[in-house]
Design brief:
- Strand 16 (330-333), helix 10 (338-351) and strand 17 form a beta-alpha-beta unit.
- The strands form four sheets. A seven-stranded mixed β-sheet has the order 5-4-3-2-1-14-15. A six-stranded mixed β-sheet has the order 6-7-8-9-12-13, with helices on one face.
- By secondary structure, it is an alpha/beta fold.
- It is elongated.
- The chain has two domains: 4-11 and 20-296, Carbon-nitrogen hydrolase (Nitrilase/N-carbamoyl-D-aminoacid amidohydrolase, 4-Layer Sandwich), CATH 3.60.110.10; 307-515 and 563-567, Rossmann fold, CATH 3.40.50.
- Helices cover 37% and strands 18% of the residues.
- Helix 10 (338-351) crosses helix 15 (469-481).
Length: 597
Amino acid sequence: MVERSIWQDSVSLRAKSVMKIAIAQLNPIIGDLTGNAERILTAAQTAVERGAQLMITPELALCGYPPRDLLMMPDFIANAAEALVELAHRLPPNLAVLVGTVAHNPDASVDGEKPLFNSAALLHQGKIQQFFHKRLLPTYDVFDEDRYFEPSQTAGHFWLDLPVTSENSVRMHIGVTICEDLWNDEDFWGQRSYETNPISDLSTLQVDFTVNLSASPYTVGKQQIREAMLHHLAKKFNQPILYANQVGGNDDLIFDGSSFALNRQGELIARACAFEADLIFVEYDLSQHDLLPLETQPVTPLTETAEAEIWSALVLGVKDYARKCGFTKAVIGLSGGVDSALVAAIAAAALGNQNVLGVLMPSPYSSDHSINDAEQLAANLGIQTKTLPIGTLMHGYDETLADLFADTEFGLAEENIQSRIRGNLLMAISNKFGYLLLSTGNKSEMAVGYCTLYGDMNGGLAVIADVAKTRVYSICKWLNDQATFPTELGWAKEVIPNHILTKAPSAELKPGQVDQDSLPPYEILDDILVRFVQKHQTPEAIIAAGHAPETLNKVMRLVSRAEFKRRQAPPVLKVSDRAFGVGWRMPIAHRWVPVAK
């Protein structure tokens, strides 16, 4: 063994001292221990072929993130441990691999601690060499890691011998962090959420570089925050950082990947593709004590617009939700409106246009242009359609309810029957043919309850329920502006018919109805919702931004009253930092609503 004090003085030895490192950006299936192990093994074999000596995988790569209450199943934990041992035996022996997994806490029964650690296992030379445990456990938004895991009290780091000649090797000192461990620097955020700053501890230990195994869910613009934060940390602690992020859709969460590496100056030297599995490489040059890029591997550019990001995220979310739940086809109710148009386009891109069925269900209140717009959209996308008029069914409901509804005025109950008839028809198709029913409501509607339980809210996945109405329009316009990929998918160049984008939005549940009969203009509504739902601004702050108190009070009441609907909605694909779903934990039966004065 040649220690650092010796090899630093050896120019010939230093010149050969380069470590190649692979970052495996994987798309695991939660609970698929065998399949996930195969994904890690396949990446490792490619990494060795490319000359890598170390490979990093994402957080909990072996079991998939987030496993949630599977972690409470003893057999699941035991099977994960067995899968890890088997994986260690099968990996190329000359490649060290950091695998995200769960590990038992031996002190749990004695000290009353949580029974598990969120861990990284070092697999090398056929064995599990060492475990490193996550130190900072997030318990906000969609995260609830304190429910399952015990935080580690010690810094994770290890030494890895790197052969440089047939007789000599050098010893690399590598720091290990897991996701949240890097998200607590006071200088970057202006405050600390935890007492410990793991990367500061690793800097004190003088590691050569730090790796981070991550499962960081996607939200709009999050990659820019990640890169700015790690740029700050690399410069502050004069330490290269390699970041391996999970990719793929798991239930309501979408992981964008976008793994990357920074040198000790904080300069970006590698970035993986967003929204797809990838394997990228960097080199650590011991003569420069720094990470270097590979000339043969260009840095993948960031997605240019928020609309392009959201589109890619939602396509991946639908594709993986269907694939991981065993669906190959989807069914959608096509109304001729902008929301169902966008969801149909997303489904066609995710599953293939031959695997999407659009169902038109006109009522006596449906306009001719809505039917024409829906048919034109389907033609543009190349998807199949079926038309099921519901006028006769509506009449049947009217007759059945005539005595009970006698001496009452036509109102919301009768209007909603149309939506519930459509929901029943769509669910019948889903049940009969095994199609995934995609609901088409947007976030603005979900927020204020402008949606019908057991009607348009039916479905297995709420595709755009975290996308505001104004953003729905901007994504559709962006989609129509694309020059190449619509035709690559076999679509017409104008994907969304222009009339859909220019007509007044309407549920068409009664003659002449438009959304603005019941709601403020969407530009106003969406701005209020961003301020109230996502930014938690006070009524005074929202009024100061230019909104009328009476409009604000109406919106806040509607948001509160609609909680019971949201609780019964399908899983919502999350693309914002505050989505309805797992991270939204509001009571249904409550009587507190802020009041604007």
